[in-house]
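SAMPLE LOG
Freezer: B-3
Tube label: C17
Construct: single chain, 152 aa
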Amino acid sequence: MDIIDLKILNILKENARTKASAIADEIDLSISAVTERIKKLEQSGIIDQYTLIVNQKKIGNDIAAVMEVGIDHPRHIDSFINFVNANPNIISCYGVAGDFDFILKILIDSSEGLESLYRMVRGFEGVKATKTYIILKNIKNDITLIPDSLAN
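STRUCTURE (predicted):
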């Protein structure tokens, strides 16, 4: 990967639907060279996937929250992970070190919906503690990090 690949990645980060011709114009490279570089970035696994970002409020998910969850014994972890994976309102789950075992990001339609999910999590076998934060404003939400340069 070189500086040209980084430029391509930054353009695709802003809009994954940018056509190879537009990228070629922006970085002064041929369309075929851009297409070949993108193909290599995909094949190497550097580009893992292309995705869609939806305005959640416009589709009815008015509440965003983060919930910390503590599990009382490791034997409950697998079943809790299965529960998380089966719940579409839990959009991210991170296993963490510290006072809690997991951090969940939740998108849901209402405070009533959040309360219902909260009760499900609190009542799940093995859950010993939770702490929930309502997200008031999204300040920054980058989904990927591309280095500024290739320092090494």
